[in-house]
Amino acid sequence: MSSILSDYQYYLPPELIADRPTVKREESRMMVIDRKNEDIKHVHFSDITGFFSSQDLLVLNDTKVIPARLHDSTGKIEMLLLEQRDPFHWTAMVKPGKKMRQGISVQTAGTIATVREVFEDGIRLLEFEAPPDLDRYGAMPIPPYFHRMADGHDRERYQTVYARKSGSVAAPTAGLHFTQNILKSLPHSFLTLQVGAGTFRPVQRVELSDHKMHAEHYTLPDSTAQRINHTTKLGGRIVAVGTTTTRVLESQPPGPLMGLSSSTDIFIRPPYKFQRVDSLLTNFHLPLSTLFMLVCAFAGREMMLSAYEKAVQERYRFFSYGDCMLIL
User: Fold this and answer.
1) What are the beta bridge partners of residue 107?
2) How do beta strands 29-34 and 324-327 pair?
3) Which residues contact 77 (CB under 8 A, 6 or more apart)?
4) In terms of Cα–Cα distance, which of 54, 36, 124, 78 is closest to 300?
5) Quick one: 149 and 27 in the same domain?
6) Which of 116, 137, 158 is the last residue before a domain boundary?
7) Could you give the number of structural domains in the chain?
8) Are residues 38 and 155 in the same domain?
9) Which of 93, 145, 279, 316 could form a disulfide with 311 if both were Cys (CB 3.0 to 4.6 A apart)?
10) E strands present in 196-237
11) What residue numbers bound the domain in which 91 lies?
């Protein structure tokens, strides 16, 4: 067990960071890790159907990414909308922050935004004179490490093929590899977590117990809860597609699951003991991130550091548009 931030660092050559997706979603490579046997296989995502049976259940996050990145009329101020409180009010991350003090107004998205409040963590509450026209003026909020502007291709590929519940400002990237045909061939069900700052905000404390996650809203449908209960009762595996799905499932109280809408700020890191999730499909995550800590909790820090080192040796593609890992 480690609760020190630096223990979740690893070396990654910059050229292995994928800034574009594979030509076809299912062409991504997939590292398969068997925790029991400590065995590693190298396959392609299109092979995933061979690892599950009709008794298992994949649970996916059907959230839809919104074009949440805005710029003011000068192009010098960037706003990343995080959470809509009502048609006229959004929380947002802004840069440069010194130009967006309380009371400052800027033209953006076909309207005017005014900073009404600045929270302790630097997030702003913006009030718009009219609802911002995101479809016309917004850009897909692709990660900054792409070092490029979002384009029309990202509108399709930075979105899962099953996305339907609008509200996220980052994609649930483990789901980006699925095609409709692959999804249809696997037993599956959906929940929704609207991805916000809680998922991708960096850890800035040396001691992990000092890091506080932002709460993110989710809906666990009753139909999904009942399918999970049935699968578990019959001895099938619950396969979480992505860390966001994992966080929803692991936020539930003991006993049979029930459908509900709520929020979670759960921070999963070693030595967390998983109660709901049996297998995990996930991408390769940034060093020092809460997402990497989650997979370390699931498979063990030493095993994950070794697997990531192997992924570097094998020239896997990392992060949002990169390859994936299936942990059994």
Assistant:
1) 112
2) parallel
3) 71, 94, 95, 96, 99, 100, 106, 108
4) 36
5) yes
6) 137
7) 2
8) yes
9) 316
10) 216-220
11) 69-137
